[in-house]
Structure formats: C-alpha cells, structure tokens
Amino acid sequence: MIPRYSRPEMVAIWSPETKFRIWFEIEAHACDALAAIGVIPKSAAETIWAKGGSATFDVARIDEIEAVTKHDVIAFLTHLAEFVGPDSRFIHQGMTSSDVLDTCFSVQLVRATDLLLADIDKLLEALKRRAFEHKDTVTIGRSHGIHAEPTTFGVKLAQAYAEFDRNKTRLLEAREEIATCAISGAVGTFANIDPRVEEHVAAALGLKPEPVSTQVIPRDRHAMYFAILGVIASSIERLSIEVRHLQRTEVLEAEEFFSPGQKGSSAMPHKRNPVLTENLTGLARMVRSYALPAMENVALWHERDISHSSVERMIGPDATVTLDFALARMTSVIDKLLVYPDNMMKNMNKFRGLVHSQRVLLALTQAGVSREDAYRLVQRNAMRVWEEGKDFLEELLADQEVRAALSEEDLREKFDLGYHTKHVDTIFRRVFGEA
Length: 435
Description:
The chain is mainly α. The protein is built from 19 helices and 6 strands.
C-alpha cells in the first residue's frame, strides 16, 4: 500500500486510529452484554463507554507499551485502562485476543467492501452510458487478434458491463461471507463467556455470529473473499488490455484521454501512451497475488496458530486499497475514453470484404454445395485478398464455381453490414433490461 495507488477513504479504514477505535467498540459492546446478564456491574459498562468513548487513543503510547509486552492487544488494553480507571478490570472478561482481532478484521473488510461496491456502481454507470452512446457504432470483432466479423463498440462495452455486474454479485456474496463475529474465548468453547455476548456484539457491529470459531474465524471465508477480489482485478485487466490493443498506432480505434500538458515520453514528443491501462494491468497482478496467501492461511494448526496474522496485516489493506484505486481509475478511463468510429470503419475495410466470408460460406451450403467444397471455394478467394490485396467481392464474382451456385445479387447481399448488428437490441435488453 503506497500513496501513489491509494485513496484516503479506503486508507482510513486500515489506519491504527480506526483499528483501535473498533477494538474499543468490540470490548465496550461486550461489556454491555456482560452487564445485561449480570456478569459485571452496569455502572462499569457505562463508565467504560463514557471514558473510553471520549478517549483519543495514542498510537505512540500503545506502541511503547507493546515494545515491553510484545502483545498488541494487551498493549491496547493497558492504554485503555489509563483512561477508564478501576472499572477497566471488567474489560475483556472471558475473551481472547482473537475475539478482538478477528472481529475487527471482519468490520474492516465489510467497510472496505462497501466502498468497493460503490466503486463498481460508478464503473457500471460509466460503462452503461458509453455502451448506449456507441450501441450502433460498428467495429470489427477480433479473435486471436485477427479480424473476425463485425460487432459494435457498444456491444463490447455491454459485455464489460455484464462482467462487472457479475462481479458486483460476487462481491456482495463475499461481504456476506466475511461479515462474521467471534467472541467465544479460548479455543472457541464459550467456557468463560456467554454466547449471548457474541450475539450482542455481532448485532451491534452489523455482523453475524460465527457458528464455530475455534478461537479464530475459519480462514476459508477470507480465502474466498480475497479470491473474489482477484477475479474483479482480472476483469479490470481484461478491459484494460482491450483499451491498450485498441490504442495501438496501427489500430487507433479508441484511446485514453490525453490531457493538455500531458507528456507521453521523455524522448519522443509525439507519443500518446496507454499509461493508465498499463498501470491497471500491473495493479491487477498485485491484487491477484494476494489470493494465494489467503488460501494458504486456511490450514492453521489445531484450533489456531498465528501464521495467518502477518499475512493479513499486509493483504487486508493492500488488496482493498489497490482494488479501490484500480476501480476508480478504470471508471475514469471509460468515462473519458476517446472513440474513433471512422478508424473503426477504415480498419473494417482494410481487407476489402473478408469479414463477410462466413455469410458466403453459409449461402453456398444453402445453395446445395457441400460444406467442404463451400469452404474451399471461399477460402481460395479469401487468400487472394490476404496475399495479393484483392477485393473479396470482386474475386467471388469472378469465380465461376461460386457463380454457378450464387448470383451477383445473392453475393452482393451477403456484404451488408446491417446483417451483423440486427440482434444488438436483443443483447442490450439481456444486459440492461427492457428500459
């Protein structure tokens, strides 16, 4: 997590100040529940809220205590006691450190997820607007990087919209998966704390109790969460690579916005490079890389160990902060994307009608020619276009075997671009609904 690829609201979720505030709220809500069932005095719970709630926790002081105790939760509790006074003896009754750490991590991930969901909504808005703007902008579809058949630029963007809409559904599922609370004590048996305390804390924090926490929340939940972040990052990379390919000089069908005063190269003043989408490709690699250690964290020893702890201190903030930045940057790229319909049409016609080869193939088979012979006839004329720069329609019209099956009118009709876009409305209805 570095400032260059960070946004303040997401960074704040992972700050020490936010973490310690959440730790306090977990402890204070637990005290409320303990007071309600008569384990500690209600006056003590009130004092803890009053004095701890108004406190400004000193990160440097906590670090100073931890340098001696070598235990972050004990350091925090010691510092909290400095504010609360004698009633601090009722804090952390029957709890273990993982109750605080894991529940806090869940709260932070939920808050981070809510920001990511808002990011996806903004990206979806941009994709939808640009998709409808270019719904009928005809362009060439490519497979293997080679001209295939016509599509529209709007359909390309509609595909991206549908993919990120699926990612939103996945992220909502990940939020549900991660939003669990553990206040179950050592090895998770509730021996020293009533399960009602966990239920109260979970409700207060917008979480649900973990069915079996074994002292820690099972890390399969976290593995699934970070894997989904990796999938979303992969979708960002897919869209980024499309922009990068379309911006190549030989293609130039679309490109990133180039602002006044922007420079593309320190050596070559003419350069306009796809730096944003190249950056997004790199950031996607980083977010994906956090999924593997999250999966390796699943296999803890017995009821718990802390091999997962150092991993999560890194991947929690890094993955969410990086993905937040990447989604915002992707939205900006799409929002300002420069689109060149004239270049799309020039590229479409670069190989003089080859994009209609399948229609001619099908027409020959429907006219009684075997598929093998039809393919041979179409391909031999297509190769003259590839190798000699011929016009595909003219070659077909001059081919006596082709003409024996298809008239000139039949052939010319097969070169109608509108044929390829007749179901665009259907695709858009499937993606965006009837509206």
